Amino acid sequence: MLDILSKIMDSFGAAIVVPIIIFFIALIMKVKPKKAFGAALNAGIGLTGFNMIIGAYSPIVTPAVNRMVEETGVNLRILDTGWQATSVVAYSTQVGMIFLGLGLVMQLVLFLIKYTDIFMPSDLWNNYSFMLWGSMLYISTKNLWLSIGLMVLSNLYSLVFSEIVAKRWSVYYGYPRCTMTAPHHICSVPLAVGMDWLLTKLGANKVQWNPETIQDKLGFLGEPVSLGFILGMLLGLAGNFMRLNTFEGWGEIATVGVATAAIMAIFPKIAGIFASAFTTITDASKRTAKSGGKDRVWYLAINDAAGYGETATLLTGMLLMPIVLILAIVLPGNETLPMVDLIAIPYMIELIICISNGNIFKSLISGTLWCVGGLYMITAVAPIFTEVAIEVGVNLPAGALLICSFAVMTNHIMGGLFLIFMTQNPLWIGLSIVVYIALYLFVRVKKAAIHDYLERQAQLEAGAQIITEEVIS
């Protein structure tokens, strides 16, 4: 059964699985089959479009990023080989495959009994993040039940973080009743909320670095397409600094600039098609989903690609690429060299962006802290991951002593839980469970207030933006 489930995920992927789930959810909610099929098809078109544009963009930008890394001349022992290696590990271990089935059942049951209002099975593929940490623990301890316990608890933490940020993500990115639950990114919620509160108290929301304000200041040059082109050119220059005397170097610089501008121009159109798929379910949920006489507000988990090309997200991510690389070189005690997954930084900061309501200045600060913490987390766990990767047949690149995935393993919460479970100390493990229970009960009781607070913070940001625009005009 587990092999069949794994083959389904490998063969069809999110662009097929998610539309099928949407189709059946719509039918259950009494949507007419024709309309349900149209919604499902739009979801498939949107996801395929996201994957095509990001898939085409990555090979253009990655050579410039890799060259930027190579030209620094650094020799850190942990090499970032990309998220693909972590998914191979997750789907290649027995304990990982056990959780693939267990996680699906658990997520479905928790939603049906209304323990959570997040329908997580629709993003089943990203369960590999839980499976990764569980596989690492099992290879290290040979304790099956402890490893399953880690994956279950990690999933529960992810769900409660998703509950906190669901409305804000949905509102900011414009996908009705949808949220992002990718475990490797959702754990940035505590840092994102805390830093946004602190930075607002310090007056950082008065520094309005967002696409709208930048456009007001710069006019044509501040439009998303122009900003993408300029920032892409700068990234290309950073990766070709030693090739400025060649046509090839300038060709790559121009290509990266135009490709980034293309993302800015095309992505919103694809996002519009994708978002239209969920209006059907949103409308139906208002009619059919009842809980104690009240409408049950629930959110469908969708792939994190849905937010990648949003203007503030992509611009902030591209600005963070050289910042993170420089910090990796100069930070004492860090042994991690981010490389392949630098292009994935926009995925990693989606929650930070939506909580700051698109303020690039605040997001750069919070995103830098998240990535720096990730460098040290990876430095701590990379030897174990490398051991597991070698055991399941992953080949190390020439010259690499240890490997990692910067995007997936930059996870303060799950990495912390992994290190706690590694101790096999009942006291520490019990404490991590108690913290979850307290957090879950708090969020369950205060969820409406939490959502209202995050929306008020977003309104403060929007209010500061309006004042800035009035001063400019």
From TrEMBL:
Keyword field contains Translocase: no
Q: Which residues cross the membrane?
A: 12-29, 36-58, 88-112, 146-166, 219-241, 253-278, 312-331, 343-361, 367-386, 398-421, 427-443
Q: Enumerate the spans annotated as PTS EIIC type-2 domain.
A: 6-473
One GO cellular component, as annotated: plasma membrane
InterPro entries linked: EIIC-GAT, PTS_EIIC_2, PTS_sugar-sp_permease
Matching entries from PROSITE patterns are given as: PTS_EIIC_TYPE_2 (PS51104)
Which key words tag this protein in UniProt? Cell membrane, Membrane, Phosphotransferase system, Sugar transport, Transmembrane, Transmembrane helix, Transport
> Pfam families of this UniProt entry?
EIIC-GAT
Q: Which GO terms describe its molecular function?
A: galactitol transmembrane transporter activity
What is one process in the GO biological process aspect for this record? phosphoenolpyruvate-dependent sugar phosphotransferase system
Give the UniProt subcellular location, in the record's own words.
Cell membrane
- Its membrane topology: Multi-pass membrane protein
Q: What is this protein called?
A: PTS galactitol transporter subunit IIC
Taxonomic lineage is: Bacteria, Bacillati, Bacillota, Bacilli, Lactobacillales
